[in-house]
Amino acid sequence: MPANLSATRQIVVTVDVVLLTLRDGRLQVLLMRRENDPFAGQLALPGGYIHPQQDDDAGAAARRVLADKTRVRAPYLEQLYTYASGARDPRGWSVSIAFYALVSEQALRRTGREVFELLDADALPHLSFDHNRIIETALDRLRNKSAYSSLPCYLLPDRFTLTELQQTYEQVMGVPLEKSAFRRKLADLGFVEPVPGARQTGQHRPAQLYSLKAGARLAVFERPF
Amino acid sequence: MPANLSATRQIVVTVDVVLLTLRDGRLQVLLMRRENDPFAGQLALPGGYIHPQQDDDAGAAARRVLADKTRVRAPYLEQLYTYASGARDPRGWSVSIAFYALVSEQALRRTGREVFELLDADALPHLSFDHNRIIETALDRLRNKSAYSSLPCYLLPDRFTLTELQQTYEQVMGVPLEKSAFRRKLADLGFVEPVPGARQTGQHRPAQLYSLKAGARLAVFERPF
Q1: pTM as predicted
Q2: In Å, what is the CA distance from B182 to each residue of B73, B144, B147, B153, B199?
Q3: What residues does each domain of chain A span?
Q4: Is A181 at the interface with chain B, CB within 8 A?
């Protein structure tokens, strides 16, 4: 066993999850008050230690931590970046493998949990550790990737109208999109499909509901919306 | 101290570096024969344990490992992805924070080291651990990012002609580029500048030499070359 193996074992390995949702057209991030020191009582991302006996890999650890702490099962979870240094945690050298996840506001409400807070992702107070920086990186990734992929769909409930889908793209990308060009592009890309017989009720003109195509994973496009 | 802290300390934390260069117009990756088990004698990426007493952060660890093992000081080094699971190393749960780095063939030659091998990145044999997968991710990242950034410059020596620069973009991107459009775009982007009085010798028509602008970091463009 190499001499430095004992040294590397001084390193604590965690996962942290930036869970994002859209509420009233604005990106919100899920935060929790820390129960323990350091930073007890302060807001932080949901996170925790990797459990080598339990977690197959870092993604499994992130999903477990998120489910345990918030009861949220996010339909989309992606590794973001790894924050690893001797300065980010007062307890010593630590590694945070950071993930970001997307979920609809409706699914968040269904968890019925009052253990977390949703804050406007673009107007955050000072958070524990380097969590402000992690969230900035997640917002950059989401915004850069959205124009070129089906990513914003994961902020919507399972069924949505095309108007809701366009609004979601506009809100994430921060730019207005032209309706007919948007719909043409959607038809070309073909990652959503109408739900047979399903229409949005309660409107003067009920709109067809759509869903992500069954088995569709993240669709990536050559050109932006 | 949380009950699980001792468990997380069973996790070994390493860095691995995918060092890429261009030789005869093809991307090559630097590999070394492993001295110790597991996989003794097999080819692997240069890598090593993080030394918490010595390394400020994961990037510093990657630069140290690369310099110690290969004497290479790469002008460009970027975090790629973190491979973290119980299955990737027969010794147990392990984390590899993977980086990729770019260097010119000329700088590699100057190290005068015979401890490494350069292999064609697109035709690799089976490597140790999950290193084939790590290299594939690095090639994807490099190719995706090159069309939109000054990244390929880091595969060139400090001084280069515009023809060499165009060839480098073409080789990395795998597509031919139109010369006048390429030069117009370069002029617009302005991340290279002529080196006063420096011309490539030994040609029938000596060409002006260029370099990355002083203090220029990675330039990212809105539209591809």
Answers
A1: 0.92
A2: 30, 18, 11, 14, 20
A3: 5-146, 151-212
A4: no
CB contact, 8 Å: A93 with chain B?
Answer: yes
Which segments in chain B show pLDDT lower than 50?
1
User: What's residue B182's pLDDT?
Assistant: 94
- Cα(A162)–Cα(A134) distance, rounded to whole angstroms? 32
CATH number of A151-212: 1.10.10.10
B198-217 residues touching A, CB cutoff 8 A: none
Contact residues on chain A for B10, CB-CB shorter than 8 A = 9, 52
Cβ burial, residue A53 (10 Å; 0-12/13-18/19+): exposed
Interface pTM (ipTM) of the complex? 0.91
Can you give the length of chain A in residues? Answer: 225
Environment class of residue A142 by beta-carbon count within 10 Å: exposed (0-12), middle (13-18) or buried (19+)?
Answer: buried
Average pLDDT over residues A133-149: 94
Say if CB B63 and CB B38 are below 8 A apart. Answer: no
Class assignment of domain A5-146? alpha beta
